[in-house]
Amino acid sequence: MSSAASSKDVGVADHFATLNQQHEAATLGMWVFLATEIMFFGTMIASYTMYRITYPQGFQAASLLMDKTIGTVNTAILLTSSLLVALAVRFAHAGEGRKIALCTALTALLGVVFDGLKFYEYGTHIADHLLPGVDFHYSGPFPRATRLFFVLYYVMTGVHALHVAIGVVIFLILTVQFLRSSKLTPRRRIILANCGLYWHFVDIVWIFLYPFFYLVGRGS
Amino acid sequence: MSEPIQTSVRGLLWTYLALMLLLFATWALSFIQMGTYDVVVSTIIALVKAVLVLLVFMELRSKSGLVNVFAGMGFYFLSLLIIIAMFDYLARGGYPYWLGG
Predict the structure, then answer these.
(1) What is the ipTM of this complex?
(2) Domain spans of chain B?
(3) If you average pLDDT over each of A117-121, A181-185, B40-44, which comes out highest?
(4) Is-contact A85 A102, C-beta < 8 A?
(5) What's residue A98's pLDDT?
(6) Spatial separation of the C-alpha atoms in residues B86 and A121, rounded to whole Å
């Protein structure tokens, strides 16, 4: 028993044989969680698909009310943050712990900017009386489909913004931890890699929400 | 300990550049009237971007088959949900506008 334990990699839990096996199990667990997230957003995406098929012209008209510039900038922000997270994980594998805190801090900052722009956009829509159920006055074409479009918009982007906010908190905690100590233990590598998977997933969701809401209307 | 193959920093930067170019392409194409093809083009570009993030940033290409199966299951069941729901809607008599309905 003692010889078997001593032959194991440092930092490996008792129930794993090697560090790779431990890392793989953690990655697998994270993907099980992400599969539930895929289904969570998937139900909303399915609803969106059905209603867009039912009200194609209405969704095109409603999409012209969106600020395409903010949507595009926010996509660029999330793609950049994803690069930073991927770099942080890469630095963890390379043993360059000091660079990780910078990447995680910038990721959290970009997340704050993303949600800031999102809430600014919500504010402009609410000021334009485009808040279904509370204050919705729209005199353009297809008012019913426009109302439906904005219900889906607030729910889907709102839940996504909540995921970004959770990610910001996670990456702020990681930043503080890596500023306190840049020592890279197997456990810290796994946590960083799994937090990275979460952030990339949030990025992927937005990659689809961007054309769903901002790019339906053409030629504007 | 054998570490799995990792994407180099240069590889990550090239992927990022590709993602930004695809974003620019989606944005630029949104000003062009393509009729029924607009939704197809923007969805294909989004799919390519998602695959790049999955394979490179999320390192799926260097993970084991088991992890890939688990990752694929979520998307598989999501596609089932959408496809079967589509069958139901189409069976009700209406056709999507991009099929001429």
Answers:
(1) 0.89
(2) 1-63, 64-101
(3) A117-121
(4) no
(5) 83
(6) 32
Cα end-to-end distance, chain B, whole Å: 59
d(CA B43, CA A212): 9
Do A87 and B71 make contact, defined as CB atoms within 8 angstroms? no
Query: Which of A23, A83, A142, A203 to mutate to probe the B interface, most B CBs <10 Å?
Result: A83
**pLDDT tens-digit map of B7-29:** 889 999 999 999 999 999 999 98
- In chain B, whose CA is at the least distance from the CA of A195? B58
Question: Which residue in B82, B2, B76, B21 sits closest to A31, CA to CA?
Answer: B76
Q: Do B70 and A38 touch (CB under 8 A)?
A: no
Tens digit of pLDDT for each residue in A172-210?
999 999 999 888 888 899 999 999 999 999 999 999 999
The gap from C-alpha B11 to its chain's centroid, in whole angstroms, comes to: 20
Residues 6+ apart with CB under 8 A from A199: A81, A82, A85, A107, A167, A170, A171
